[in-house]
Amino acid sequence: MAAEGGSDQFIDIVKLSPPAKFPAAFPQDLKVAPSLKRRRSGGDTWVVSVFVIIHVGVFIATMLVNDCWTNSNGDCALKTLGRFSFQPLSENPLLGPSQSKLEEMGALRRNFVTEYHQTWRLFTSPFLHAGLFHLLLNLCSIIFIGIHLERELGPLRIGVIYAMSAFGGALMASLFLQHTPAVASSGALYGLLGTLLSELIWNWELQTKRVSAIVSFVFVFVCNFILGFLPYVDNFASIGGFVSGFLLGSVLLLSRRLELPKVPIKGTLFDYGVKSYIKLKLKQNMDRPVLRIVSFILFSLILAGCLVAVLHGININSYCTWCPYVDCIPYTSWHCQNGETSYNGER
After folding, report:
1. By C-alpha distance, which of 179, 172, 92 is closest to 134?
2. Among 83, 114, 192, 253, whose Cα sits 20 to 30 Å from the Cα of 165?
3. Do residues 185 and 129 lie in contact, with contact meaning Cβ atoms separated by under 8 Å?
4. What CATH homologous superfamily does 31-345 map to?
5. pLDDT (tens digit, 9 = 90+) per residue, 301-324?
6. Which spans are transmembrane here (predicted)?
7. Is the whole-model pTM more than 0.90?
8. How far apart are CA 103 and CA 180, in angstroms?
9. Residues 6 or more apart whose Cβ sits within 8 Å of residue 224
């Protein structure tokens, strides 16, 4: 600004100089786009709640249909529950219904899918649980992981990922079916885990609680996969759901835009050189379009390939002798093959 009546000009250095405060620790101190802040602070988790209610309702309906007290002549676990009592642990170690009632409610089974082409089971099996233990572990994991992701990504994205992962898991499970019923409800959970992993990988530099996120991911993944070695819980549904969730997460993740300075700043506490600046600026501008396209193509190819294989009655167990052990490990208290499970090898 010029002084009155004089030719000399005085420059207000304070107004023209760049802000003195630049992020002292990258990347936590970088600003996140306002749209992300609004989404994270919303806390809307109705989609996860709806799916949890549906799962609980379907399990109650399954136990009503099972009616162990009447159909098994009182030979039940927890007889005090009456109509809601469970099959004996020797028959269902997860405190649940019988094989026949699981099949009646829409569980997957090799001959139903490959011979009778009951493809509607691909849509019913993701809502079934093998037993009370399976239901509690699965739903607790869904609530724990799903609420976090729904707050981060919004209900629409999580709804799409949940539904498509459940369907992808059912398709994958149908390629490895045996002559026992299988439920595919863990496919949706592992879809959420796959999405969580994609968020950790692609937004790694923005994570502030990396250790806790990794520990939570591994704990939920391992616990639920171990449960899948018991009868009726299909681990291949978990694998299919996980792959689907990871790819869909890579497609639908709303990347967090970083507000970078217009020019590189040097000489501060941390030296942000030209190379680092260019790398961050390119990442901000490109928004990973190639990654999204490749992930979408891979997901589409896998989904289409599995669907064609299921419709043609292909069963991979015919070509893979060890694959059945990924889904169920035989033990003295249960079988993984034909018939109702029974104790000490008796059917």
Report:
1. 92
2. 114
3. yes
4. Rhomboid-like (1.20.1540.10)
5. 999 999 999 998 888 988 888 888
6. 46-65, 127-147, 159-177, 183-204, 211-230, 236-254, 290-314
7. no
8. 9
9. 137, 138, 141, 186, 189, 190, 238
